[in-house]
Design goal:
The chain is of the alpha/beta class and 756 residues long. Helices cover 40% and strands 15% of the residues. The chain has two domains: 275 residues, Alpha-Beta Complex (Spore Coat Polysaccharide Biosynthesis Protein SpsA, Chain A); 291 residues, Spore Coat Polysaccharide Biosynthesis Protein SpsA, Chain A (Alpha-Beta Complex).
């Protein structure tokens, strides 16, 4: 108790010093500013203009006074820092002697109100409670539309998650594309104490479509205007962010600023740091009306409840209608309209310190917002040039951005200790499944992989494809890792139809892939390739999970289940579409087999016809696939018959058969228990046979496997005895599951395995 009171006395003394020193100083300055009972201006030029008694001596006196003022201000700053430290050390007590912890990061508390409370002796507590409670939920709204914005927003989210100490609730105003991508991403990310709600941006278009907009963000750049109408009526406040924002501090610090709003202040904004609204950038430049430099809307604090009471909808609409009569269109989307409203109603704005929105467009005054790295709070890449923008410290900002861009998102799945989390059924089921596994089992890691949830980012690049109206379209499905990236261009040259690819990459590798793809004319000219990133986690290559991801996200009635190491023959896409009709795949359970061959040569003159391929087979340039190491895998295709076949022919399933097939999109998924090397395709073909699929070999189709270094997984299989033992165990368990699912018909698989 004695310690607490001593702390209180020190705290009170510091506060009084902080208030009294400036007062005494300004009394002294005020008294010194009178000569013969008349006030004297501190400005030398003003004195010279109005007082004949101006002398060099009095100018020196005033200069010394100005120096003293600066010294006192510096002392004040030092005292404020000490006071801030004292605040952080004072525990907060509630009635009934219960204590509660709060976020005490620098800038989160309202220090002015706290000082006022202490000086007034208001309350028996040692200080006023900080603005943000430990488990208080912070609400963030983001407008996000399209493939590129969906990719950009992930870096923003990572930077927020990295620093945060509070539960977060993201309100995403998204089009159908962004919702599909981000819903899957957050669902598979499984970050504790994070909730995400989506609002259909396409339904909001009618609210703002009447406003002509020249900004590159298009119609979605106007949707922040309708947030009061879009977000839940019981939501009182929200932080609104652009997708090109990077946080360098805990977002709770920004949330705490709401407590500094006074009177009718309902918008928290940072002043625009360019000369845009001053109208002097070029001759005849005519911007929308704004208060001074205007305000940037990349970061907004919205008091939604008060805005609704003020009839914000009516306010901004009337302003926009009036200004558009003269301006004809907006140049900076919602920002122009926000500024026009503020010009008429300046009392609406609480001006945020500029470090809450350091704007990195060309020719801005952003350098005035910080003197040190620790001053940075929020970085805003608000130029169309993004990372190529001109700025003295752009290299530092770029490195900070790239840190989050390539940061392993799996590391952000950390619990907020002491904060209750909402019940997540998927998470609970996962924990239950994992708890049922025996950690002492030598195959535990294999079994665990089956239940691992891999963070997944669908459509990493722009995708655009409309299936043919004749319902014959076929999508090539494959999976790959970074070491097979070089195959992409060749496959795109051989297959003109849609492609669905699942890529197993780390966050850093995903960015390498992005740069590779954007630098390739072949890949950038193709918009019908869906790239789905499955982020690395665990020690095994989840080959069948990857196949399932690629299969699940196709838009055609049929799919060609291939591997990334194979090049399809030229014209295979059109040939398969004709075969779909010929074999009536729509109404029958058929799996069309594309015969597989291989070459041991890295440079191959690819055969342009079946006749040319047969000639290369005879010459020893080509071989039937894996004939020398795994004959059983493709022997049932009956290559001898294929050589002379002119019509499709049926073959029977045999043990270890693993052909590459074309099937309907409603085909069964691959079994996830098989990871890395071994039995991943065999199990799938076995299940198709159990479901009474008819295997039909296409007489004029072929694909060729290109040589490559052995994968890491096949090396583990060959060198690790336990790996092989576990694979055998998983095979036996799969066959037992087949017997349970398909009954008597599945007995042949046990018999075939025993005979093989």
């Amino acid at each position: 108790m004695l310690g607490i009171c001593r702390g209180r006395r020190k705290f009170l003394a510091a506060s009084l010093s902080l208030l009294c020193i400036p007062a005494i100083t300004w009394i002294y300055l005020f008294a010194g500013s009178f000569e013969d009972g008349k006030p004297v201006s501190l400005s030398p030029l003003e004195s010279q203009a109005h007082s004949p008694r101006y002398t060099a001596s009095s100018q020196r006196d005033r200069e010394s006074l100005e120096v003293r003022v600066r010294e006192v201000e510096e002392e004040n700053r030092s005292l404020r820092r000490q006071l801030s430290l004292a605040q952080g050390q004072v525990p907060v007590h509630r009635r009934g002697n219960h204590s509660k912890t709060y976020s005490m990061e620098e800038g989160t508390g309202d220090s002015e109100n706290l000082r006022a409370g202490i000086v007034a002796g208001n309350s028996s507590e040692c200080g006023q409670q900080p603005a943000v409670e430990k488990c208080e939920t912070i609400h963030v709204a983001i407008v996000c539309a399209g493939y590129n914005a969906s990719r950009d927003v992930v870096t923003l989210v990572k930077s927020v998650l990295f620093h945060r100490r509070n539960p977060l609730h993201f309100h995403l105003i998204a089009d159908s594309i962004a919702e599909q991508i981000l819903a899957t991403l957050f669902q598979t990310w499984m970050v504790p104490a994070v909730r995400v709600d989506f609002y259909n941006a396409d339904e909001l278009k009618s609210e703002v479509s009447w406003i002509p907009n020249k900004h590159y963000s298009g119609i979605y750049g106007l949707m922040k205007l309708v947030l009061t109408k879009t977000l839940p009526a019981n939501l009182e406040r929200v932080i609104v962010l652009d997708t090109d924002i990077t946080f360098a501090t805990d977002i709770a610090e920004l949330w705490a600023v709401f407590h500094k709003f006074k009177g009718q202040q309902v918008l928290g904004l940072v002043e625009n740091q360019s000369d845009w609204y001053l109208g002097n950038l070029w001759k005849n430049h005519r911007p929308w009306p704004a208060l001074g430099r205007g305000y940037n809307t990349g970061v907004i604090l919205l008091l939604l409840d008060k805005l609704r009471k003020m009839k914000w909808e009516q306010m901004w609409r009337l302003t926009a209608e009036r200004e558009l009569m003269g301006m004809l269109s907006t140049s900076l989307a919602d920002q122009d309209i926000f500024n026009a409203v503020i010009k008429q109603n300046p009392f609406l704005v609480y001006q945020l310190p500029c470090f809450w929105n350091v704007q990195l467009s060309d020719h801005t005054r952003s350098e005035q917002c910080y003197r040190d790295v620790s001053d940075l709070k929020v970085i805003h890449w608000n130029s169309p040039k993004k990372l190529r923008v001109k700025n003295k410290h752009v290299e530092f900002f770029r490195n900070l951005y790239l840190t989050f861009l390539e940061y392993d998102g799996n590391l952000l799945r950390r619990e907020l200790f002491g904060c209750p989390s909402e019940t997540d059924v998927n998470s609970e089921n996962l924990q239950k499944q994992l708890s049922e596994l025996d950690e002492d089992d030598l195959c535990y890691e294999f079994r665990r992989e089956r239940f691992t949830v891999h963070r997944t980012h669908l459509y990493f690049l722009h995708y655009e494809f409309e299936p043919a109206t004749d319902n014959t379209d076929v999508t090539l499905v494959a999976q790959l890792s970074m070491d097979r990236l070089q195959m992409l261009e060749a496959i795109c040259k051989h297959w003109e139809g849609p492609i669905s690819l699942a890529l197993y990459l780390s966050d850093a590798e995903a960015q390498q892939f992005l740069r590779y793809a954007q630098g390739s004319e072949v890949l950038m000219s193709r918009h019908n390739v869906g790239y789905h990133i499955v982020y690395k986690e665990g020690q095994f290559y989840p080959v069948n999970l990857l196949r399932n991801v690629a299969m699940k996200h196709i838009s055609t009635p049929y799919m060609f289940l291939s591997d990334i190491d194979f090049l399809p023959m030229y014209g295979l896409y059109e040939y398969l579409r004709k075969s779909v009709i010929q074999l009536d795949l729509a109404n029958t359970k058929k799996a069309m087999i594309v015969p597989a061959f291989e070459t041991l040569r890295y440079r191959l003159s690819f055969p342009k016809s079946k006749a040319e391929l047969l000639s290369m087979l005879d010459m020893g340039t080509l071989f039937t696939f894996r004939y020398h190491v795994w004959t059983k895998g493709h022997a049932p295709t009956n290559f001898a018959k294929w050589r002379t076949a002119t019509m499709p022919y049926r073959v029977e399933w045999e043990a270890d058969f693993e052909p590459y097939v074309v099937v309907r999109r409603d085909c069964s998924e691959y079994d996830r228990r098989f990871v890395g090397f071994g039995w991943n395709k065999v199990a799938h073909i076995m299940e198709l046979d159990a479901q009474e699929y008819e295997f039909t070999v296409l007489p004029n189709a072929y694909m060729i496997h290109m040589p490559h270094a052995p994968s890491f997984d096949i090396t583990k299989f060959r060198s690790n005895k336990q790996y092989r033992i576990c694979l055998k165990t998983l095979k036996e368990e799969f066959q037992q599951d087949m017997s349970r699912r398909y009954g008597f018909a599945a007995l042949k698989y046990l018999t075939a395995e025993n005979n093989s």
